[in-house]
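Suppose a colleague, Dr. K., hands you the sequence of a protein chain of 412 amino acids and asks what its three-dimensional shape might be. Before reaching for any lab equipment, you can write down a predicted structure in token form. Begin with the sequence itself:
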Amino acid sequence: MTTVKVHQDNIQQRRSELVTRQGELILLLTYFSLLAGRFTLERVLDDSLLGVNIDPRWVALAVILLLTLAWYAGLRRVQATRNKMAGMAPFVMWGLWLIISAQWAPSEAETAMAQVDIVFLLSFLILAWFVMSYLRDDATERIWLWVLTTGIIYFALALASGPDLQGRFSAPGGGPNTFVRIMVLSVIAALYLVVVQARRWPLATLPIFMIGAVLSGSRGGVLSAILIFLVFLVPLVKMLRVRLSLALGLVGVSSVYVASVWQDGYVLTVITERFVQQTLVEGHTAGRDVIVDQAWSMFSNNPIFGVGMGGFDVLESSSRDYGYAHNLVLATLSEAGVIGGLLLAIALLNLFLICSQARLTGHTLFALMAGLFFLGTTMFSGDYYDSRFAWFFLAMAAISSYRKRDVKALPQ
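The predicted structure, expressed as tokens, is then:
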């Protein structure tokens, strides 16, 4: 009897591990789909070869959904445990209200594509939320290795492409603001692997990611990174040991040295011209002051419901076409009114409160750092869909912190 019981336990263990690996695969595909953004086939294929214009996100979503359904069927057979899908409901309500707001947008507004973006935003993240609620921390933490690999590839592609006309670097297919987000996220990933998993080799990648962030020339991205590391400085220092602190100090000195000698001090030139001269001396804001004034004016004139999704692009009166508000909060207020703003605030506060009720260490701490960093960048650039990684990592942090307090068994 004992031998049979051991054999059955071994089979159950192998099934459980297989299901976990399948969940990791689904999470990896979701990560790639979010990373691709609004990737179109026209970037890699000639228009004449396509015949029909299909958004690849539909294909990715269909594949991920089918894999998730098959995976869930296997989950029920291994008596997996799940965590509460903490914080998802308010996020979904915010997204649905944005879709509804298109009903009162100006007739000239291009609402169809904006609504499709929100559908993808909700769909990918609901699936990610669902899968992460079943995976243990040691499974979801593999995201940091994926991020680090992404950062190395992006940095290599950016160097191969060279600077743009403004002297800013970015990987092909994305702008400097996207590039800086990947670089800073890779810094967070490298620190996680070093501090939490006690790996030493990611230390060597920190200088290239920090230099890459500067080379992007993204002032909003760099400012968001600085603020996030200042906010989390104390808990990070508490997690560091003496030898690791010395190693990070050496990495910092090495980064400064490499920046000072690379291409005759090109990095220092970027810092001087882009971050000091243009920002502090000349007060160049890239039109953000105009955007803020116009978005706030739209909200003031339509405080309850806003001007409707896509309304900012139609109603902004400057001679320059900004397209959107470049600020997640202002975009929501101006286009979805105070109702949309309250739903956004509730969604974010709910996630923060969930995280605050658990001890912020390890996976939870770094996921929260990543989520808040991306949230910070949405205050300077990007539209609704560009907030996807902020929600992704905040969801990961909330689920991880909630798991420490309550784990609910999957019903038989």
